[in-house]
Amino acid sequence: MGERRRDRTREIAALRLGVDLGLTLIDTAEMYGEGGAEEIVGEAIAGRRDGVFLVSKVYPHNASAKGTIAACERSLARLRTDRLDLYLLHWRGSVPLVETIGAFAKLQRDGKILRWGVSNFDVVDMEELVALTGGDDCATNQVYLSLGERGVEWSLLAWMRARKLPLMAYSPLGQGRLLGHRVLGRVAAAVGATPAQVALAWLLTKDGVVPIPQSSNAAHIREIAAVPELVLDRPMLAALEAAFPPPAGARALAML
């Protein structure tokens, strides 16, 4: 969102519809549209800030002790708010983690952010993070997880569950690549749903996983809002597991 001015009205309306339907976690970043997405979100939530859980992210190259604080101030201005519910390091860069953690702690003390976390961190990165002073204050890790990309289930998801850390699943529909799959379509037809709804419902069966689908299409947002009511029985889940098997070994963390 926030990349084309001609889409602005539709994107704002989509965000407002989502909040109206109970989709109150809004995830954005300074990277998206180079601040344009944050501006869209800021306009969409004007007058209803207390009704949403607002997440944004800092670029790795901005994540120094001073740079993180400056980047957060810019995000807050674009979002028209005085605080973020959650602020994430978008991915690991060259800035030492201890600097970023220190900046996050200062932002917390100042009331600019309520929680902080990371994104695109694998187990080795998470272990290094939590070993640092203040690192165990990390609230979440946002990674790529979908039916078609289950690499995090090899070790990362279990590691996070053991520490009671929720995992935020971005691109839960595989950027749409999943939706034409024959088995997914068959399960969707059997349950009277769309393939996208089934893919999201599958993720909701995973303990500690918070999927964050993206759409600026009103019809799709209504589909997403109905997903929590969708029940997949054991044969359906078994069919999905067979068609989209979990990883058989460790591999590099997938990123989009």
Keywords, please?
7-stranded parallel beta sheet, 2 domains, 256 residues, TIM Barrel, globular, alpha/beta
Radius of gyration: 18 Å
- Structure annotation, total helices: 10
Order of helices and strands: HEHEHEHEHEHEHHEHH
Distance between the termini: 16 Å
CATH superfamily of the largest domain: NADP-dependent oxidoreductase domain
| Sheet/helix structural class | alpha/beta
CATH architecture term of the largest domain: Alpha-Beta Barrel
Low-confidence blocks of residues: none
Mean pLDDT across all amino acids: 96
CATH fold name of the largest domain: TIM Barrel
Helix content: 40-55%
What topology, given as strand order, has the largest sheet? 1-2-3-4-5-6-7
Describe the SSE topology.
Blueprint: H1 8-20, E1 25-27, H2 36-44, E2 53-58, H3 65-79, E3 86-89, H4 97-109, E4 116-119, H5 123-131, E5 141-144, H6 156-162, E6 167-170, H7 182-191, H8 195-204, E7 209-212, H9 218-226, H10 234-243
Descriptive notes:
- The chain has a 7-stranded parallel β-sheet.
- α1 packs parallel to α9, α3 packs across α4 and α7 packs across α8.
- The mean pLDDT is 96.
- By secondary structure, it is an alpha/beta fold.
- The chain has 2 domains: 134 residues, TIM Barrel (Alpha-Beta Barrel); 108 residues, TIM Barrel, CATH 3.20.20.100.
